[in-house]
């Protein structure tokens, strides 16, 4: 038995002669299996086990920044005898690389005890998103009402229209839902969903500040609109980032 430490972004090749009967358990962080053809395999979280047979998996990679640890157990190394490569009953059905032959089974993976499945993670994220969206709508609408109370008219020169309070609520709700959808997509397909969502949301927030600046409205209206763009961002981004980080660990 030995412990393999993979620093952030590190990649360790799987040597067939040394890993033929190896069984690994992720004890810290996350580890991604790399297939023989170079394609990325499943990402395994803490307490997830994998069984290597043949050369179906050619490397282990740490997709995160923090160090990951894998405990490697190779049956038969002390006695010099080889044991059967049949996985124990506690391990789930073999996950196979369809690109390889049936004799080159890649790995066996099973969900970690106490870890939630993907549908449960998505439902949890959706629940957080709904609560955060409602909070963002209320906070933005109240902020807009306060701005009106101190004399901001929210009049846009192009067309001479005044933005109603209901308009702030609708727009905030729509783009907040868009943020939840982006977060769900990253949770489903990204190896680092929290980090990528933070960068994506910050970039979109910065872009959203451009229209008020070029609207031609008076200074008070422009200042208020900029602030009202930042209010929902301050609510949604931290809430969804925390939720992604919790559900992806």
Automatic annotation (TrEMBL):
InterPro entries: DUF6069 (IPR045713)
Pfam families reported for this sequence: DUF6069
Record's compositionally biased regions (Low complexity): 77-88
TM segment ranges: 125-145, 165-185, 197-214, 220-240
Keyword set, alphabetical order: Membrane, Transmembrane, Transmembrane helix
Residues covered by region (Disordered): 77-102
Stated name of the protein: Uncharacterized protein
Organism the protein comes from: Micromonospora endolithica
């Amino acid at each position: 038995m030995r412990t393999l430490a993979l620093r952030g972004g590190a990649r360790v090749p799987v040597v067939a002669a040394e890993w033929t009967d190896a069984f690994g358990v992720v004890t810290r962080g996350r580890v991604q299996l790399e297939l023989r053809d170079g394609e990325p395999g499943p990402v395994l979280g803490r307490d997830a086990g994998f069984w290597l047979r043949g050369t179906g998996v050619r490397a282990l990679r740490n997709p995160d920044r923090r160090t990951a640890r894998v405990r490697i157990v190779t049956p038969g190394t002390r006695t010099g005898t080889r044991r059967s490569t049949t996985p124990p009953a506690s391990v789930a059905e073999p996950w196979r690389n369809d690109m390889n032959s049936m004799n080159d089974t890649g790995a066996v993976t099973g969900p970690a005890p106490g870890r939630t499945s993907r549908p449960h993670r998505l439902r949890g994220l959706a629940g957080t998103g709904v609560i955060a969206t409602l909070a963002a709508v209320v906070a933005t609408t109240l902020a807009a009402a306060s701005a009106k109370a101190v004399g901001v008219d929210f009049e846009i020169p192009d067309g001479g229209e005044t933005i109603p309070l209901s308009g702030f609520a609708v727009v905030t709700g729509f783009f907040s839902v868009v943020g939840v959808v982006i977060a769900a997509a990253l949770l489903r397909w990204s190896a680092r969903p929290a980090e990528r969502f933070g960068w994506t949301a910050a970039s979109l927030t910065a872009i959203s500040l451009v229209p008020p600046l070029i609207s031609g409205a008076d200074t008070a209206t422009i200042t208020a609109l900029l602030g009202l763009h930042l209010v929902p961002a301050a609510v949604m981004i931290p809430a969804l980032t925390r939720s992604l980080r919790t559900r992806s660990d």
